[in-house]
Design goal:
Number of helices: 8
Strand order of the largest sheet: 2-1-3
Order of helices and strands: EEHEHHHHHHH
Radius of gyration: 21 Å
Strand content: 5-15%
Helix content: 55-70%
Structural class: mainly alpha
Number of strands: 3
Largest sheet: 3 strands, antiparallel
Shape: flat
Distance between the termini: 36 Å
Number of domains: 2
Length: 193
């Protein structure tokens, strides 16, 4: 199973959290009515088909990376290294330049992507954490007092203000919003050092 962490809410109450298997099992035991499942990495709701038995539901969960690599092994590329082919569309001048570089187009593109990822990794992590917390807050905290101000504090990196503004929210919603936002505040602190 891929490294997912999901959290399930029924209304404003947290009913389960953990791996997809743990969350789906808890939902099936407690009943799926009125449950909203959030992918904690993105803050997005998870669309689940909860019809049938527990085994049916578990069989429909996302597959792990090993299965994806095995599937990729049947296609061109170097799947044992995790290299799979995809289409890239560039202008002729880009292809010409890539063709003149040592190692060829694939090597140069991989190096460019790695350099860009390294240059922006801290900022990207903060942005992803802010977006995940924001999506969750919009879904379950949008009607709470101070929601808009809390969102502004999240994006401004004002952790204490964020905590102050979310204090009156229902406990489970407040605690989960803070849990998702912590990575944004931690990344913001690291950026300032």
């Amino acid at each position: 199973m891929a490294d997912f962490h999901w959290t399930a809410f029924r209304g404003e109450s947290r009913v389960a959290g953990g791996s997809p298997v743990e969350v789906v099992t808890a939902i099936k035991v407690g009943g799926p009515d009125g449950v909203l499942v959030i992918d904690d990495a993105t803050g997005k709701p998870v669309d689940l088909d909860l019809r049938g038995t527990l085994e049916d539901c578990l069989g429909r969960l996302p597959k792990d990376d090993a299965e994806s690599i095995e599937h990729a092994a049947r296609r061109p590329g170097r799947p044992k290294l995790g290299v799979v082919p995809r289409e890239v569309t560039l202008l002729p001048r880009h292809w010409e330049w890539l063709g003149q570089q040592p190692g060829g187009a694939s090597v140069v593109l991989r190096k460019l992507v790695d350099a860009a990822r390294a240059a922006s990794s801290a900022g990207d992590g903060r942005r992803r954490a802010q977006e995940a917390a924001d999506r969750f807050m919009r879904a379950l905290g949008g009607d709470q007092p101070g929601y808009e101000e809390a969102t502004r504090a999240l994006y401004a990196g004002q952790e204490e203000r964020f905590k102050e503004l979310t204090e009156r929210w229902p406990r489970d919603v407040r605690d989960h919003a803070r849990y998702l936002a912590r990575a944004a505040f931690e990344a913001g602190t690291a950026d300032k050092k």
